[in-house]
Amino acid sequence: MEAMDSVAVMEVTPVPDPLFVGATPLIPAPPESELVLRRSARCLGRPRVPVYAEPQEPKQSTGRRGRPKKKRDEENQDPAPQVAAKVPRKTAKVEPKERKPMPVVGPEPVPADFTGAAAEDDALGTGKSAKLRVKETLRAFNSHYLHLVQEEQKRAQAVIQEIAAKGAAKNKDGKKGGEGEAKEKRPSKRPDLKAITKMQENNSFLYTEKVLGPIPGIDVGDQFYSRAEMVVLGIHSHWLNGIDYMGMKYQEKKEYENFTFPMATCIVMSGIYEDDLDKADEIIYTGQGGNDLLGNHRQIGSQQLNRGNLALKVVDDWVQKGVQGHVVYKYKLKRLEGQPSLTTTEVRFTRAEAPRKISELPGLVCDDISGGQENIPIPATNVVDDPPVPPSGFVYSKSLKISKGIKIPSDCAGCDCEGDCANNKNCSCAQLNGSDLPYVSFKNIGRLVEPKAVVFECGANCSCNRNCVNRTSQQGLQHRLEVFKTASKGWGVRTWDTILPGAPICEYVGVLKRTEEVDGLLHNNYIFDIDCLQTMKGLDGREKRAGSDMNMPSLHAENDSEAPPAPEYCIDAGSIGSFARFINHSCNPNLFVQCVLTNHHDVKLAKVMLFAADTILPLQELCYDYGYVLNSVVSPDGKIVKLPCCCGAPDCRKRLY
């Protein structure tokens, strides 16, 4: 068999390191002539703690205020392909050491008229598309993973403190100790394997049987961040072996009576074997075995023709001496004709064939829309309009502006931790979050373990340092982003870096106003209601988040009163705002909204933050659920106003409101 399966996952090389530099000012323009639209945190498209019973349908809103509203002209156009093509999901890391996403291919041929199995609904009778079930499985894995990382960090910290205490006692007696023992009892590096076990115990693997040929929900070009997620999806059954195969027991099954076993079903190219060669449409694959997996990853012994190597034996295979002089088995695999192309912009980008400088970007209209305010420049590109124009009609600001008459409280007490609060099990801010800090740290970037009713961060009155993991939302932009013109949705935002689940994206900023100030205003569709309190109390059809009841006593005293059905405050990003104002809606988003408190506990004035719900690959567009309620917009004559949704998600609701 000279074929690679349709489950091809392209190898991702590191994104070029140089940061974007330079900036040119935006061209001011008059605001668009449209009515008010109100976004909120009511959206349900966020990751949750895994529950393996089928979820019930969300409640419908009954009391949302309605008034005439419109969406900007670009969103009223017919749907059309966007500039940035889809990039599938990856999961969290296998080890604390960052890895490249790994390509996966299989030897089974696909039909000549193959059009992609991901477009089909799976056969489980849930009414969900196969793509959505893949995403839900990956989110469940990531939820387990982050909780287990949190547990492991706590355990490791306790061990280190215990060793340090014993070392101090030994030193008093004139004996050496402490440091050496701490090195011996370093933290475990495999919470991903524990997450696999958790999901296996709960029968939450997506596909439990090995599959020949296309797998529903998995497309050519899909990329995965770790082998562990391939295991929970059922693409590759082992977290370490490079070749997955069906053994001799399958010969007994009638549906396989014409096959020869063992038969390979999937291979992984992780970059460990130095004899591998990846040309995208043709792969020279090295068999398994003889590799120093725990050392320098070089061949230290000869391979044997058994197990996976025997299962992968195809027409074009041979034996040769490898780079290190040991016998290795080689296999030549070619893609079948009729499969989707791998020469997408995402593949070119991840193979370091994309522009390395801002000046090389196609359709560049602005070097940095932030004008140097952000940690990293944010270029803007436009290959849709002729002539191309930059985003306009607003003043960039990375921080929230406060309207006159609104006073932000600053009366809450802070913690007395030294250094990072992660090192103090008695941190008072951790207690507010339910005894554990809401974040775990990865490469100096905090990752939110799970969406919460509200996150209590360390603030101005805390004694911990500015790099404390519990100040994650205060660290500014951490990833390279680009504002780009889409074909059907106006401006959008996409990433140039891999963003992991739980990583902070940005704060939704603008002008903080009372909602009564914007009621009836025209020409503004960038209003975001701060409805955290209403969500915590489950009002107006909102779904409560974890910790809603627990956190209420810790909040500002005014929150104990009966909450109004509509939020009292909102953020207006119509004329002042950041790149967050350009992040588009999706019915199947990769971001979620999180309310955060820092210097006060008045949840009605909480910060509105956006976090990654999934692993987001380079050139994938960022999106979140705007939270509009269907049939909630009513015209002056009492008729319901409807607006088609152009998000293009497999499970799109077809209407924005």
From TrEMBL:
Keywords: Chromosome, Methyltransferase, Nucleus, S-adenosyl-L-methionine, Transferase. Gene3D superfamilies: SET domain, SRA-YDG. Residues 641-657 form the Post-SET domain. Residues 413-476 form the Pre-SET domain. Residues 213-373 form the YDG domain. Residues 92-101, 170-191 have a biased composition (Basic and acidic residues). Residues 479-627 form the SET domain. One of its GO terms (cellular component) is nucleus. It is found in: Chromosome; Nucleus. Residues 46-121, 166-191, 543-564 are annotated as: Disordered. GO terms for molecular function: histone methyltransferase activity; zinc ion binding. GO terms for biological process: methylation. Transmembrane segments: none annotated. The keyword Manganese does not apply. The keyword Transferase applies. Its main location: nucleus. It comes from the Eukaryota. This is Histone-lysine N-methyltransferase. It comes from Triticum aestivum (Wheat).
